[in-house]
Amino acid sequence: MLTLTAVSKVFSLLQHRNPVLQGITATFQPGTLYAITGPSGAGKSTLLALLAGLDVPTEGQIVWNDKPVASMTRTQATGFLLHECALIFQYPYLIGELSVLENCILKGLAAGIPLHECQKRARELLTLLGIEGHEQAMPLTLSGGEQQRVAVARALLLQPKLVIADEPTAHLDEQNKKIIIDTLAHCAHANGAIVIISSHDDYVRSRADQVYGLANGALSLHSPNPHEPGEPT
Question: What domains lie within the chain, and their CATH numbers?
């Protein structure tokens, strides 16, 4: 379980204070796909960075399975990001000198998983994402949508219990978008993961079990249906 209690984030420069998040309290449950929507600049990326432990709140607390994220030691934080939490970004950030399969298995090897098991898992994920047969291809020979699907396979290799995706379909066509979001929904519903996606996209919203809107520093619960009005909490 992932919980936030009265979480605020303020960025300060000289005498200027910019409050981005203000007093957010929420609970994210296993087996659930969450969408976080909101206008550009609302603080969605800031919130996701806090959830992943890449930044710390100015006030409040974020707790992952009874462990305060901001209080993790460097070793604990590394283990959290390696074994428990997977990050997916707008861009795939693949290593150009490595093949598709090598990009996918790198995190598994770092976690101490045997090579043959890493390769088996990677091939299964690449097949699930519809890019089997490209294992030996280099990233620059793939389309943008194919590269992003490789990034998703890489993120899911260790079967994470928390997946945080920041606008993962922002630059994709409809087909690639649906493949990725459907795979992340499967990760939540079949594997019991918490999947949190920030997005402006109606398809992401329609596939989510719960939709939150972020505006003016506050998080409110919305209807999953993109054509129904939101309900503040």
Answer: 2-11+18-200 (3.40.50.300)
